[in-house]
């Protein structure tokens, strides 16, 4: 939706610019993490709920619901105010994933 004073298509252009900016920020962050090996802490890719949902092929609403305190085993996440982020490749997220996988017993 364009505002009363903005030209038609302004929101679409802004959204494209924002997407381009965030993509370059992720790339810069990954490069920074690769260069910053002296700190000793591993660098994990930071994802939004939507990005995590896309990788796991589940609805983003399900991911957000699994972060709430009422969940019995919430997805490991970081809260930045009202924003929720996930550390892709972190041991905590990997352990959560393994705990939640259902393995069927093989009957011999």
- The strands making up the biggest β-sheet line up spatially as 1-3-2
**Helix-strand topology string:** HEHHEEH
Low-confidence stretches: none
| Largest β sheet strand count, sense and barrel closure | 3 strands, antiparallel
Q: How would you describe this protein?
A:
There is one protein chain. This protein is mostly helical and 108 residues long. The protein has 2 domains: 1-39; 44-108. The protein has 4 helices and 3 strands, in the order αβααββα. It has helices at 10-35, 49-56, 60-65, 91-100, and strands at residues 45-47, 78-80, 83-88. Strands 1-3-2 form a 3-stranded antiparallel sheet. A hairpin with a 2-residue loop joins strand 2 (78-80) and strand 3 (83-88). The termini are far apart. The model has no long low-confidence stretch (mean pLDDT 75).
Report a brief summary of the structure:
With 108 residues, this protein is mostly helical. The protein is built from four helices and three strands; from the N terminus they run H-E-H-H-E-E-H.
Strand and helix map with partners:
Blueprint: H1 10-35, E1 45-47, H2 49-56, H3 60-65, E2 78-80, E3 83-88, H4 91-100
Antiparallel strand pairs: 1-3, 2-3
Question: What labels would you give this structure?
Answer:
108 residues, mainly alpha, 2 domains, three-stranded antiparallel beta sheet, 3 strands, 46% helix, globular
């Amino acid at each position: 939706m364009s505002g009363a004073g903005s030209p038609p298509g302004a929101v679409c252009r802004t959204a494209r610019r924002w997407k381009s900016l965030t993509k370059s920020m992720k790339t810069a962050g990954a490069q920074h993490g690769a260069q910053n090996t002296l700190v000793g802490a591993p660098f994990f890719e930071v994802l939004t709920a939507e990005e995590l949902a896309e990788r796991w092929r589940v609805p983003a609403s399900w991911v957000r619901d699994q972060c709430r305190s009422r969940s019995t085993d919430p997805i490991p996440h970081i809260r930045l105010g009202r924003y929720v982020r996930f550390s892709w490749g972190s041991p905590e997220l990997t352990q959560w994933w393994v705990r939640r996988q259902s393995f069927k017993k093989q009957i011999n």
